[in-house]
Design goal:
This protein has about 130 residues and is mainly alpha-helical. It has helices at about 5-30, 35-45, 55-70, 75-85, 90-105, 105-125.
């Protein structure tokens, strides 16, 4: 039986990342069905569904956190796509990643900007070269 928490999580995941997020979960489900359920229920059913922040703000926070971790490039790429999907601008994304140089160090920001370039190239988005 599918829980309401799971249904809510799938709805929120789709709102954040469209079909791409749901596809990722379905691929994960093939090998790790329990973990796929956790990925839907906790972050998206519980946390992303809270009323205190909008999806744009949540995605900017996630991009910052994943960039700061420095070891989550695949997840950062997913959330860069998601940030664009929920309406974050290329300039906002670049600025958030650049901000990580102050708190997570230049290597984290440089690696994050490399992922930004990759995602923007995939989507045909020009880099905002002069945001200052």
């Amino acid at each position: 039986m599918t829980s309401q928490r799971y249904i809510t999580g799938l709805e929120r995941l789709h709102a954040v990342d469209g079909d791409a997020g749901v596809d990722v979960v379905e691929t994960l489900r093939q090998a790790f069905p329990d973990f796929a359920t956790y990925v839907v229920e906790f972050p998206f059913g519980d946390i992303y569904s809270r009323p205190g922040l909008g999806l744009r703000e949540r995605e900017l926070a996630v991009v910052a956190a994943l960039c700061a971790l420095g070891n989550a490039a695949p997840q950062l790429r997913v959330h860069l796509h998601a940030a664009l999907h929920v309406g974050c601008t290329p300039t906002e994304i670049v600025e958030v990643v650049m901000q990580m140089a102050v708190y997570a160090g230049f290597p984290a920001a440089l690696n994050g900007l490399a992922e930004v370039r990759r995602v923007f190239d995939e989507r045909g988005i020009a880099l905002p070269l002069n945001t200052a």
